[in-house]
Write a structure and sequence with these properties.
Blueprint lengths: L1 E3 H7 L4 H9 L3 E3 L2 E2 L6 E3 L4 E3 L10 H11 L7 E5 L5 H8 L4 E5 L8 H4 L4 E4 L18 E6 L6 H14 L5 E8 L17 H17 L3 E7 L11 E8 H6 L13
Helix pairs in contact: 1-2, 3-4
Length: 264
């Protein structure tokens, strides 16, 4: 006698939601063959192998998770933007923290983990350059976006300027809040050795330069922390929690026309 695959998993004391997730994410093998159909008929004694997922699809997730804990962040019911999504570690953290929708942006193609890609809350934008962001990218109008960024081979300053230009030109978005991963090796490549910035003094100088840049552009600095996970080559990266809104362009100016970097 045969039963639906999902029923067989439930009979093995696996919760319905977990059973469905395992099947749809291609983590259930029947006779050593991946099966993604919930109602696929299988015999009760069929050899079943379950490939339980790792806690996260990439090590980068631990970086953002640490920031959520440190800064007590909340993205619940919010529209989010993941810049440099790659396999989806940051997106996964956003989803587990209740994000309403996540736009996973990456210049690459097909990197996003299948389990993340299948989530109905995720809109995958492969082969997309953040420099080209515009209102038409979004399927809903959102007044404020929660942004996370783990981008490589680009300065964080360029990311900030791009987002500011988007906000100022948008017909519905007035600002953003989020966590940006500062990768010192991409801010001063000439100071690196084999792609690694080893000079701690220079690393701190780069952070100070970025904070000064943010202040000059009326970006509000809320805090920073060293990433608990080093970059692939051993670079020590920094997580920056910041925000920006259209009003701060005017309100953040002092009498001599310079940005004070403080929200009013």
């Amino acid at each position: 006698m045969k039963v639906p695959l999902i029923e067989l998993l439930i009979n093995k004391q696996i919760e319905v939601s977990m059973a469905r997730s395992l099947i749809l994410s291609g983590r259930v093998l029947v006779n050593s063959v991946k099966e993604t159909r919930e109602r696929y008929p299988v015999s009760k004694d069929a050899p079943i192998e379950i490939l339980y997922p790792k806690e996260y699809v990439s090590r980068s997730a631990r970086k953002l998770k640490a920031a959520f804990t440190k800064f007590q962040l909340n993205c619940s019911h919010q529209t989010c933007l993941d810049i440099g999504a790659s396999t989806g570690g940051f997106t996964q953290v956003l989803l587990e923290n209740g994000a309403f929708r996540v736009y996973a942006i990456d210049v690459g193609y097909g990197q996003l983990d299948y389990s993340i890609r299948r989530d109905t809350r995720v809109i995958v934008k492969d082969r997309a350059n953040i420099k080209e962001i515009k209102d038409s990218w979004f399927v809903e109008s959102v007044d404020r976006i929660f942004v996370v960024c783990d981008a490589s081979f680009i300065s964080i300053k360029t990311i900030f300027v791009t987002l500011i230009h988007f906000v100022l030109s948008s017909t519905f978005c007035y600002g953003f809040t989020g966590v940006f991963l500062l990768k010192p090796q991409f801010e001063d490549s000439q100071a690196t050795e084999a792609g690694v910035l080893k000079d701690e003094k220079r690393r701190q100088e780069i952070l100070e330069e970025v904070l000064a840049f943010m202040k000059d552009h009326s970006i509000i600095f809320h805090g920073s922390m060293d990433s608990p996970v080093e970059g692939t080559k051993g670079n020590r990266e920094i997580l920056i929690y910041s925000s920006y809104r259209k009003e701060s362009v005017v309100q953040g100016r002092n009498s001599d026309g310079q940005g004070n970097g403080e929200e009013t």
